[in-house]
Amino acid sequence: MKVTEPIVMTDMMALAGRADTLAWQPFRAGVDLYQIYGTMGAPGPSACLLRYAPGATVARHAHTGYEHIFVLDGGQTDDNGHLTAGALLISPPGTDHAIVSHEGCIVLAIYEAPVSFKS
Hints:
This protein is mostly beta strands. It is about 0% helix and about 50% strand. It is built from no helices and ten strands.
């Protein structure tokens, strides 16, 4: 997805109240994806929203570039602890983690490069 104009998404912290208006796509069991730019898993940068159902997980994966996760609603837990709305996690290249969202959440995910899922 090539972007040629600025992308404006207003009132991101209130997104949970209008999340059903977005065209979510399945990503992993219990996790939906709304692609903002780029293509998840393809070379190059990308950004998306991820919506976790309560109890959903994302398997351990390694970062090949910087990953920025901003929690917009709910909470997620990984090796760094439990992060709730307003928290920002920046994972540098060479780090890895697995994620679970016990209560469900929506996060903004910005990737410099694709992640590599562990076998």
